[in-house]
Specification:
With about 90 residues, this protein is mainly α. Helix content is about 65%, strand content about 0%. Keywords: Signal.
Length: about 90
């Protein structure tokens, strides 16, 4: 009896559809900026939706899209540094 149940269980697993990738994955959000913005807005306004995989992917895409920026130019001491350190710092 047990081998029959085991074979039936294996047959059921084999017949089950394969797990599909998320329909809204990170590359999709990067390729669709308008939808990405709309998803971020919806995720921020709905706490239940904000815990879904789609919202996680939208936030991860936001981090990838954000530019890293450039270092600030060295323009010399700030006014506060001039006040505290005077002319000692060059």
């Amino acid at each position: 009896m047990r081998p029959a149940l085991l074979l039936a269980g294996l047959a059921a697993l084999a017949a089950a559809p394969a797990a599909a990738a998320e329909p809204y994955d990170i590359p999709w959000f990067l390729a669709n900026p308008r939808a990405h913005t709309e998803w971020l807005r919806r995720c921020m306004n709905d706490a239940r939706l904000g815990r879904t995989a789609e919202c996680d992917n939208a936030r991860a895409a936001q981090l990838r899209r954000r530019p890293l920026g450039r270092p600030l130019p060295n323009t010399g001491p700030t006014p506060a540094e001039q006040f505290f350190y005077g002319a000692r710092r060059s």
